[in-house]
Each structure stands twice: as C-alpha cells, then as structure tokens.
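User: N-acetylglucosamine kinase. Structure?
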Amino acid sequence: MTGKSSRRFLAVDGGGTKTALLVGDEEGHVLSLSYGGSSNLKSRPWDEVKTELSGLIRRGLELSGSSREQVAGIVLGLAGSDRPEDKARIVEHLAAELPQQAVITVYNDAITALAAGTFGERGMVLISGTGSICCGFDPATDEYIRVGGWGYVFGDEGSGFDLGKRGLQAVMKAYDGRTAPTLLTDKILARLSLASPDKLITAIYEADNMRAKVASLSPAVFEAAKEGDAAAEFIVSEAVRELAALAAATHCKLKHGTDKTPLILSGGVFQEPYFLEAFTEWPQIRALSLDIRCLNVPPVIGSYYFAVKQAGLLITPEMINTIQQQCNDKGEKHDDTAHKANDNGTNQ
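Assistant: Predicted structure:
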C-alpha cells in the first residue's frame, strides 16, 4: 500500500520481549510494520537499546519506501521509560538519527497501548505480558495514574514472567518432595525440551533473555490449570487476583465522569481465553464501573495515533476504519516474521 501524503510518522511499541516499529502516513495507511528485540531500558544495556531502535528505524523506512527527510514525528511507547532521565537520553539519541523537524515523544508503553484502544481518549489500560502494569490517562487534563510495573524483582504481579516463575517454583518444590507431584513438571520440561527438573538451572539462568524465557512458560501453567492441576489453578487465581488489584487501585485514583471507564486489556496473558474469562468474572472487577475491551489492534497503533495528533491532525472515523481493516487484512504485507513466537507483550 502506498500513502498519498509525503509526511511519514514513526510509531514504536517496545516491551520486554520485542519491539514493533510502524511507518504510516497522514491518512491511516500502514506502510510498514517491522519487529526487533527488546527495548526495555531496565532490562537491556543502553547501547543495545540504541542499536535496536536505530536499526528498526532504518529498516522501517526502507521497507516503506520512505526517506529520512519525510519523517515528521515519532512517538515511542517503551517499557521502563517513565523517568525523565530515560526519556531525555532516548530523545537525544533519536535527534541525531532523524531530521530536525521530526518531533520526538516518549511515553511508557502502557499509555500508548491505552491510546490504541481508546483512539487517544481517556481510559485505563491493564497490561499483562512479560511484565504487568495498570495505568489511567486523560489527555485532556494530562492526568496520569500508574499502578504497578515495578519490574520482575519487586513487581510485575500477574504477568507472564510471574506465572512462569511460580510454575518453575512449583516444579522444583515437587522435585524436592516438598509438595505433591504436579502436571507442571512434564509440561514445562516438554516446553523446554528437557529431561529432568535439575536441567532447568542451566536452561533458565543461562538464557539470553531470562525474563522472556520464563514468561514463555505461562502457557504451560494454563494447560495444567485447565486439566485440573491444583498447583497451576492456584497460580492462575493468584495472578487474576493481583491484576484485579492493579485495576481497582487505578480506578480508585482516576477521576471519573458519568460513563463507565474504558479498561483496555493488553498483553499476551490476556490472549488466553481461560485466563481472560477468569479475570472478567473476578468479583472485584465485576464490582467496578468498567467498559472492558480487549485490544484488537497492535499496541503500536496507539503510538501512531499520538504521532498523528501531535502533528495537529484529527483521528477521524475513516482513519480508524482504515487502520483496523489493515490490521485484520491477512494479505497485508508486514514484516512480522521475527520475534513473534511466545511474545508476551510488555514489561516495565
């Protein structure tokens, strides 16, 4: 597809497993969509993040048939980028990569995921991917609420990493004889092609991206839970409880109008129907005045909406329809072959 306008907008969504870069025009035409590795500033060295972002930009422009001089702006939704000093170094780096007129804006990836579901309007987003976070945002007042997203050491409850970690703990406790045997043992070992639990030490701790590796085990937890394994069922219920608490705390802090507050669910964990149903039926969630929506477009679309809006353009119904049609069009030629397996979304 070829855009009619000459201006190009770059949009980035970067989490703990992969980074997406979209190149679009002024009318909602997606000209290219490419993927790279993690760009989380808190889990990857800065030099590697810089290289990842620069390479993606060059690749995206090439794939879209666009030139560097056409770039009018870029919006990045990056995990681990809430702090002013982190945003400043990203802007400084990209200013040398892009033309002088390009406007560079950095958000936490939760905010851009929210925009993908609300078209840049007010609401809440709950992400459970490699990590977890819940945010509320009102662009009209610049009100921003953040709950959770404190990283895998002392946060990320209910995330893919949390589910995988608890699954591994259950396997090792059963291996020690501290707890009863669990279906998790065979399912996790099979997923990692290992013969026995003691092999997990090397497989996990020496993995290139340990957090992504652990998060990729969450489907094994869901499988075991659906088959009635007590340990797995408990892990899933705890994850649901933790995520519900994130959403409830955010809802309590966010100023409300008369309508139900949109809650956008995003991240690989919510792509599991078993888990999604458990979450939406959780009593604490049912008690809140929420309009729950699963994100039906890639989170990077939110960055694109922001990039268009910061250029003074309106997000029209026609643009939204164009975007959604392209996202649902199986024939659209996007470069999305890399880093798709076991992606669990984002982390902070």
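The beta strands are 8-14, 19-24, 30-36, 71-78, 103-108, 123-128, 132-138, 143-148, 261-266, 290-294. The chain has 14 helices and ten strands.
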